[in-house]
Amino acid sequence: MKHLAIAAVILWAAFYFGGMLFSSADRAAESSFSKLIEAPQRSVENPYRNGYFYLFGLTAASSLDPAKTGYEIWVDETEDARRAEFAERRATRADLVYTLTLEATASSWEADDPLGEFRKKDAPFQAATGQYRILLLRYDHWIGMPFDDWGFGRRVVTLGTDILAVHRLYVAEGFSNSTMEGVERLHKDFHLWRTVLREAKTISTKVLAQIVMADDLQLLSRMLAKPTVDKAILTMGLQLTLPLSAPEYSLRWPIRHQLALAMKDRSAGVRHEGDPARRHLYEDWLSRTGHLPTDAFDSIIHPPARAAAANFQWGQAASAYAAYYEAIINASENNVNYLPGMQEVVGTLHRGMFEGILKSRPVEPGWEIFHSQLVETDTRLRLASLQIQLRHPSPQTAVPTRLAEVGSQYFDPFTGLPMLWSPTQQKLYSVGRDRLDDGGDPTFDISVPAVVGQTQATPVPMVTRQGPR
Question: What are phi and psi for residue 201, nearest 5 degrees?
């Protein structure tokens, strides 16, 4: 009996102190998550002076203020609608009355010689510049505004196709007026979208910025493929095509945004914010236009928050996921080819504690998809810069040698090696997301045509013969 009493005491102590250890671990895990979901500080306090909201209301009726309209729509579609008080009617998406499609600019923008097409007086986009003058004026105003993404922790849908169409019309009209005006507009447009990429707090904003940037870069690459290019385009191009910086690459806030949504859903018990159907349509458009997998946005939902993981133990998983998210955030800001996998991160912790988590499904969110898109955007920047650099005469005759000597900042970010050259196709190319050399095949590789400057002969120093003294 005495032995049984001692055993009971030992078991009680084990459970009691073990429970204390686990609860302590849970508190530490909750602390880790609470740091990850802290909202960012706002750099623009007045919503009516924030380009983020002006973009929301860009297509509002001519009598309305785009920034005010955009802010009211944003408030209406977030939980702030329950707290906000408006003395008058609040704007809704019904007030977004202008619709512009890509068809107006497609034939000129996507032509082999876009500059020549832009200058044609009967080009299809010319009629649209008059019809949508107010959108062009608003877009020009928006480019000069500060941009602060207020979307963190909220499910809201900005404009998609309309923004892409207005941006094209804005740049095309500039080039139709003069090369210099077109260069200035392209420069302002691209610079602002790089700012949006850097300041994005949600993954949808980051993807949208890359879609517009890629559109500009493809236009610039087609201009640079011509035998003769205006010096203003070459000078501007070098300024625009610097490789992505660490803040532009960073997935810090988009990852934290997704986790904040998951924690909000967990506390609310249901996703109640915004219009799910509209949001899915927008994400489908971003996926198609950004060449992402159809399930890209679903793949980054915090795994315990997915319906398929209803029995997933949040407390048990918290510390593992906190460590994992911190690891991929840091990796995204440090110029890596791949983000670390869940197995790599958890392997450095107490493996036995998380063995059950690793066997559960789904386990790992798909952030590598969006990291690869950023690497592809960086690749397009470097290729466009190399198109310009290769036009300059050089004493080096071999293009592969020139690509190796240009410096690692212009190497292929997918491999860390110099970009590749196809002499038969006269193309520069990157191996792309599959990291395989497919000879510049645009289906798999990322390629641009290149005009190589003539070889510049190296001057031979003259030797003066001196006769005998």
Answer: -105, -10
- Dihedral angle sign, alpha carbons of residues 203, 205, 206, 207: positive
Whether residue 115 contacts residue 223, with contact meaning beta carbons closer than 8 Å, is answered with: yes
Burial class (CB in 10 A: 0-12, 13-18, 19+), 145: middle
Q: Which amino acid is at 47?
A: P
Q: Which residue in 156, 97, 159, 446 sits closest to 285, CA to CA?
A: 159
Q: Which residue has the higher pLDDT, 307 or 204?
A: 204
- Specify the pLDDT at position 77: 77
Contact call for residues 260 and 273 (beta carbons, < 8 A): no
End-to-end Cα, the chain, rounded Å: 122
pLDDT at position 222 over 60: yes
Q: Which residue has the higher pLDDT, 355 or 222?
A: 222
Which one, of 198, 221, 22, 30, lies nearest residue 109 by Cα? 221
For residue 268, the tally of other CB atoms under 10 A from its CB is 11
The answer to whether the Cα torsion of 351, 357, 359, 361 is positive or negative is negative
Question: What are residue 314's phi and psi, to 5 degrees?
Answer: -60, -50
Q: Is it the case that residue 220 has pLDDT exceeding 70?
A: yes
118, with CB counted inside 10 A (0-12, 13-18, 19+), is buried
Global pTM value: 0.86
Percent of the chain with pLDDT over 70: 80
CA distance 45 to 38: 18
pLDDT digits (tens, 9 = 90+) for 376-403: 999 999 999 999 999 988 777 789 999 9
